Amino acid sequence: MTRAARHRRVLYFEEPIFGDGDFLECKVDPSGVVVLTPHVEAGHGPAESQALTAKLLHAYMREHDVRDYVLWVYTPFELPVTAPLFEEGPAPACTVYDCMDELAQFRGAPPELRERERQLFGLADVVFTGGYRIWENKRLQHDNAHPFPSSVEVSHFAQARAGLAEPQDQIGIPGPKLGFYGVIDERFDIDLVREVAARRPEWQFVFLGPVVKISEHDLPRGANIHYLGMKKYTELPAYLAHWDVALLPFARNDATEYISPTKTPEYLAAGVPVVSTNIRDVIRPWGEEDVVRIAVDADEFEAAIEEALAVDNAARQAKADRMLARLSWDRTWAGMEELILEAMTNREMIKGVTNYDDASVNRVTGSNRTSDVARTKDLEAVRVIAPDHASGANVAGVADD
């Protein structure tokens, strides 16, 4: 979104904060992104809270006369928040579904999530996925789906190679340090970490991030296991700078079947050797290119760490740097923007087609995708507004972080 904000107005609609009264807080990020945070009165059920949030979003869009915009949705669960935009307007010129995870397979996922995703597929003009594994699934549900594996802000994480001062809460931990940052939840292989840490008490395991959906009682414990809590994005390079190996200790379960960890290129940009369990989107391409060491069980995980600590990783890092050069956020945004503009153009052209058969679709769009036409007709039924000049569109995002 920060890349989009260089040339467009970007409104980032956050998840609600529950308290007293209903109002919308507006802040402008230094990047230019306008962050809108709804404050909703506590005590309502999920449906009522979403209805109140939708009312705040709709009022803002009308008050500020936001038109000819791209609606960018990160989670199907928040689809009801966008309902007034489609029903009463101003409707989006293009709808993007940015699918990073198979949320319906996460522990505690609401049962209605799959149905809402089905509805979102019906509204979306283009679908982006956060990796290849999830793209293989979503392309069966939408015929304009495109994979965009995790990009990385190389310059930010490369600061770790410059010898940053070690943070105070980590400086007292002896080496070798093996680190992980991210949400510690059902994707985290607690049995693997517990076993390897017990085998190698001289290795120090450092974990940064919140603990979610895992009981504190179930977490691996030991003198060589350290939980340092949540850290800001800006703080991560300083921690990485003093790790000897970075870890991706993910369990193999429903929640990890489709993940594409953003940490993989971030760790590599920091210049730290990486050891991962056998997650599909880590194996391809990082494992296949012999940049990340892959392990399928505790024995292999231990051996891979031991090797990473013992050998010179310069050649591996040089190959990683060549791969990272192709993963900038600028390049990713350019690819996404091109697909958005193409989808907007196709919709405007299809609106002029009266005979919805394969031949007419092919003449207009160069495609035989009759489902595109069906989806466009549904969108027109909810008064979708196509812009006169697609390149001048705004971007509005609905997110659930």
Q: Report the top-level CATH class of the largest domain.
A: Alpha Beta
Structural class by sheet pairing and helices: alpha/beta
Q: Structurally, how many domains make up the residues?
A: 2
Q: Unreliable segments (pLDDT under 50, ≥5 consecutive)?
A: 353-401
Proportion of strand residues: 15-25%
CATH architecture label name of the largest domain: 3-Layer(aba) Sandwich
Helices and strands, in N-to-C order?
A: EEEEHEHEHEHEHHEHEEHEHEHEHHHHHE
Q: Note the overall shape.
A: globular
Assembly type of the chains comes to: single chain
GO molecular function: transferase activity
Pfam families: Glyco_trans_1_4 (PF13692)
Protein name: Glycosyltransferase involved in cell wall biosynthesis
Keywords: Transferase
Describe this structure in words.
With 401 residues, the protein is an alpha/beta fold. The chain folds into two domains: 217 residues, 3-Layer(aba) Sandwich (Rossmann fold); 171 residues, Glycogen Phosphorylase B (Rossmann fold). Helices cover 36% and strands 17% of the residues. The protein has 15 helices and 15 strands. Strands 1, 2, 3, 4, 5, 6, 7, 8 and 15 form a nine-stranded mixed beta sheet that branches. Helix 7 packs across helix 11. The two termini are 14 Å apart. The C terminus is likely disordered.
